[in-house]
Design brief:
single chain, alpha+beta, about 15% strand, globular
């Protein structure tokens, strides 16, 4: 997968071969219980595996993450006695691939509001109309988890979460993914023109705004933790490349001695290593708390945004240090470090962003702002 990653990036192509190998290995069922045909991992194992995958092929790991997020939500609910998404686990075990159709341009409310219309239908289904951005796995997903705002029902407004099928004629996927990094993820715009979610695929109707529903917690926890694992893996790979570069490069000023003997280079690598080493224990601690149903109460959201921001910002810092160690060769388009430099930048755009995360943590420690 590492060998293919450069070609996918260069050609702005989807990771078809990677996906086929991951499917054959059963990796897409990592968080699916064995009784539904899955591997039956906990978040502990998934975090380790996603970090390792990201070290080889960051865009592949990021895109697969969105499928794993949904199976992770289903696992979290099931572990806590809620079988709402057992159908998802069953279908994932049978080979269905789930996309994450939540993000919308200009919607900084994220899970707490929507620009997409959710129109109630007779019998309990909904039709969704709107645009979803950054829909990873666009060439391959078979089911799409999405949400929209119901303003028509007697108890409106409600945020309605449901799942639609790729075969729906009212789903259009734009070929508009041409980005700086994470190119193989092919996270294209998805246009919903009245796409239908059947009654048995409507999984929540919630009041807009912050919500303590376990479903929201599940999305938040699964998304933030698995995303953090991907960026931690990028940082780990960048550190390995920096070490290799320091041993490979030599200095004329030091009579041909390797840069691994240069005090300034040694400091940069040490600085990167100190930052990187802090990530795995934090990720695994949060993962194990999720697996063992530890109750952190209102501090859970602060812990989750914290680990996401720490991972993405630390990975960005480590990659930056690695590029400085490797020198001008990393500025060439074919350089793996140059690609990691572009890929790692995507971390700042994923929710929760830095500003939102600080607001969440401040509310947890200080209480909400006075209205």
């Amino acid at each position: 997968m590492r060998e293919r990653a450069a070609g996918y990036d260069r050609d702005n192509a989807f990771f078809d071969d990677d996906l086929a190998e991951l499917r054959d290995a059963g990796y897409l069922t990592a968080l699916v219980p064995a009784e539904y045909g899955g591997i039956g991992w906990g978040f502990d194992e998934a975090v380790r595996a996603q970090s390792r995958l990201a070290g080889a092929a960051p865009a592949t790991a990021l895109a697969v993450n969105m499928h794993l997020v949904w199976t992770g939500v289903a696992k979290l609910l099931r572990d806590r006695g809620d079988d709402t998404l057992d159908f998802l686990l069953r279908e994932a075990g049978q080979g269905e691939l789930f996309g994450f159709g939540i993000s919308e341009a200009g919607n900084d409310l994220m899970l707490f509001g929507s620009r997409t219309a959710a129109e109630p239908q007779s019998g309990g289904g909904y039709r969704y109309s709107g645009r979803k951005v950054f829909t990873s796995l666009s060439p391959a997903w078979t089911r799409l988890g999405t949400m929209g705002l119901d303003t028509a029902s007697p108890d409106a407004p409600k945020i309605v979460y449901g799942f639609i099928d790729r075969e729906d004629p009212d789903v259009r996927i734009l070929d508009d993914w041409d980005t700086l990094g994470m190119r193989a993820s092919q996270s294209r715009t998805t246009v919903l023109d009245g796409a239908f979610a059947a009654p048995d695929r409507i999984v929540r109707r919630l009041d807009p705004g912050p919500n303590a529903d376990p479903f929201i917690f599940g999305i938040f926890a699964s998304f933030e933790l698995l995303l953090a694992a991907v960026y931690a893996g990028i940082g780990a790979r960048a550190l390995d490349l920096a070490v290799a570069a320091a041993h490979r490069r030599t200095s004329m000023k030091r009579d041909g001695a390797p840069l691994s003997q240069d005090p300034d280079i040694r400091w940069r690598i040490a600085d990167a290593a100190i930052a990187q080493e802090a990530l795995e224990p934090q990720l695994l601690a949060v993962a194990r708390d999720l697996d063992t149903l530890v109750d952190h109460g209102p501090m859970w959201f602060a812990k989750l945004v914290g680990v996401k921001v720490r991972s993405t910002e630390t990975a960005k810092h480590v990659v930056d240090q690695a590029v400085r160690v490797a020198g001008g060769s990393s500025y060439f388009a074919g350089s793996e470090l140059g690609r990691l430099y572009r890929d790692v930048l995507a971390g700042i755009f994923h929710p929760s962003d830095d500003e939102s995360a600080h607001g969440t943590v401040a509310n947890a420690w200080l209480g909400p702002l006075d209205s």
